[in-house]
Amino acid sequence: MLNFNYSIPTKIFFGNGQIKVLGKEIKKYGTKVLLVYGGESIKKNGVYDEVIDQLKGEDIPFWELNGVKPNPRIDSVREGIKICRENKIDFLLPVGGGSIIDCAKTIGAGYYYDGDPWDLVIGKGKIEKVLPIGTVSTIAATGSEMDNYAVISNLETNQKLGLFHDNMFPKFSILDPVYTFTVSQRQTAAGTADIMSHIFEVYFSRTEGAYLQDRMAEAILKTCIKYGIVAVKEPKNYEARANLMWSSSLAINGLLSYGKESMWSVHPIQHELSAYYDITHGIGLAILTPYWMEYVLNDETVDKFAEYGINVWDIDKENDKYGIARGAIEKTREYFISLGLPSTLREVGIGEENLENMAKKATDYQGGTIGSFVPLNYEDTLEIYRRAL
Amino acid sequence: MLNFNYSIPTKIFFGNGQIKVLGKEIKKYGTKVLLVYGGESIKKNGVYDEVIDQLKGEDIPFWELNGVKPNPRIDSVREGIKICRENKIDFLLPVGGGSIIDCAKTIGAGYYYDGDPWDLVIGKGKIEKVLPIGTVSTIAATGSEMDNYAVISNLETNQKLGLFHDNMFPKFSILDPVYTFTVSQRQTAAGTADIMSHIFEVYFSRTEGAYLQDRMAEAILKTCIKYGIVAVKEPKNYEARANLMWSSSLAINGLLSYGKESMWSVHPIQHELSAYYDITHGIGLAILTPYWMEYVLNDETVDKFAEYGINVWDIDKENDKYGIARGAIEKTREYFISLGLPSTLREVGIGEENLENMAKKATDYQGGTIGSFVPLNYEDTLEIYRRAL
């Protein structure tokens, strides 16, 4: 186990009806609110009204930034900063999924930055302070409600990049599983794949002796596998939605990665798909993950994949280890298919046209090599894209 | 899964050499330090010198309260408060195990209370504020380094009781597994039993659908079972000490109990053993736990015990569920014995003399009924003590 510094300051209000704390919690940190959201979904499912009731009930003035898209654009960030500065807004309230929360986090960082906020995304500028943020999460997926990361896209430059800062942890997040009842089958499936991918990124690591972290990772993977399919089939199953929602936060808040070396692999490869084709993040991950697993399976990694097969998929440990490893990868693929997710790039309209450009960008952004479990160069990355066609 | 409000604000600096952050961390919260510790052990193993080096290196003035005993006495708390008030001390630095940390937490609460600090323990007085606390942990056991609880004893009244407050969370804790290399075999075993008992207290619950929490509980139990015996046999095994140390914090910081109904059972029964006989907390737990499990095994609880047997002890799920349950309880007992721990009260010098008084006190403190997995009244508690003789 490696040394680590643990700090997860976000408070979580979990469960049905927790929206009632919203107004009072906001007042601990701010006086004027920017409500950040996407399209019509939170108006249709009633979440918008519940939030507005809370704000009005506590006499908290608020402004709105709506129309924030999945794979949130830097344009929305710029617009949000403008509204905040014009109105001296001192608290950000994203209501939605990871894209909405990521947009708000970047608005919060950009608010205190003199130049264009894209500088902060590409590392040209430095984050010093961040406006306080509270979130109302409406999907189990990115875990952005309990971490200090954000991912922002720039469609002009075909770039999708991450930024982080300790002050980007939300002060609090309200997680009401009922708010996810109206998430579509496809988005539920994609969200489950996203959570599982966050776990894979840190589970498949070369760090020795982080036994506790690995067993906890398996615990959350088993939870996703059990309840992802339930939530797809029974969208109003509270138990399934609750287990997925809490899994999404714990998968990425650091609990599983503290003490392990884990340079991510599949996310950087996937990000190019979203940057070039604007496809749903979790769908790209579901397609790529089994191909990545097959590609990196070798004599040095087979034990880890066998561990995965035995502990997560309950494959008989008496089998030979390559058999267990391949069985586990196949079960992973079959599971994503059972959720209704595509398993090839062609199914989502991606052909050979950009594979080389994407492989080049993906590796360039990582300084030439992606990941550390099995470091991947340009050729490796291109080959994974090709196999996934 | 039940609703919950999650807040675990303690920062953790985990790993060998992390003591180097001590001085700078203290300066974020205070200017004058009360160093709280027990006997000679931290002087023998070098931890005391490392702490002093840090304080001196940052020119932080400090006072000392030493001689704090296991099952810390209210007398030590009174003494600590006196030193703090006389010297306007504004930061508490317990260096040691749970008893030392619990003593410091109670000093921190008592500092701001006008009356006798025992009032706060018995609920006669109310905790309003707490001095900031940072800990240097030297044993994997109570988890006090990352929670907001303390347990204090009063040998005059034969009382051992808990108190808690949100401000009793340490601001930070330094967990260096090397500091636990010199913990004796017996204390290592008792600490492991204590961690496992904290998990049992929340794992064995009637809450339905907290699947994620239960799988994580099993993950930490498996870690304890794997490494407890290793640490007993190879006290300088870093991997074992690290896994146990991090398990101790995660077992009780709320991660496993948020979302579950869990009134503790074995701890209240054990506390009377320590109050009457001053025996090591973890040893009392190791003795009582299997007897408690056998006593509460019935048609309503057998499924949970079978789940425990299958998922933690790898018992074949094809067996009948009572067979699995009884097998799991027997494995629990055998495991504690394998660690070198006693399995009966007589082995630690406890006879029939106080059983009735202890059963009465244990149940009285809990309002007549202990626990909620299977609520235990006076007769139940007395019977468990008797069987454990």
UniProtKB/TrEMBL annotation, chains A, B:
Query: Which terms in the Gene Ontology molecular function aspect does this entry carry?
Result: alcohol dehydrogenase (NADP+) activity; butanol dehydrogenase (NAD+) activity; metal ion binding; methylglyoxal reductase (NADPH) (acetol producing) activity
* Alcohol dehydrogenase iron-type/glycerol dehydrogenase GldA domain sequence ranges: 9-177
Q: Which InterPro entries match?
A: ADH_Fe/GldA (IPR001670), ADH_Fe_C (IPR056798), BDH-like (IPR044731)
Q: Which residues form the Fe-containing alcohol dehydrogenase-like C-terminal domain?
A: 188-388
What is any Pfam family matched here? ADH_Fe_C
Q: Does the keyword S-adenosyl-L-methionine apply?
A: no
**UniProt entry keywords in alphabetical sequence:** Oxidoreductase
UniProt keyword annotation of Cell membrane present: no
GO (cellular component) term, any one: cytosol
Protein name, entry field: Iron-containing alcohol dehydrogenase
Organism annotation: Acidilutibacter cellobiosedens
